[in-house]
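ok trying again, last paste got cut off:
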Amino acid sequence: VASKHNDDDQFIWESEADNAFVIRRDPRGNSLKRGTEITLHLKEKVGKEYMDQYELKRLIAKYSEFTHFPIYLYTERTETKEVPIEEAKEEEEKKEGAEE
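nice, full thing came through this time. structure:
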């Protein structure tokens, strides 16, 4: 967890899930303008259910229902589209014509 207040240095809180933690100045400097950044490192066996963005959104909604500040979940999506060979050639020729 990295956290920063407007008028203070940025600090990090680290834990190995062993009932101990360390708080120290962030060696990256003040990379946050303000707020908190949470980074989770999950074990492969346990982490699969939490890698699903819909499950994460559900958990965030459930456990942050009464917070008065926004929580953002950054997600990525990859789509694969099959293009027939003729269409692919036509698109490639259009791109080459536009570049000239």
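cool. The first strand starts at residue 2 and ends at 4. The CA atoms of residues 17 and 95 lie 53 Å apart.
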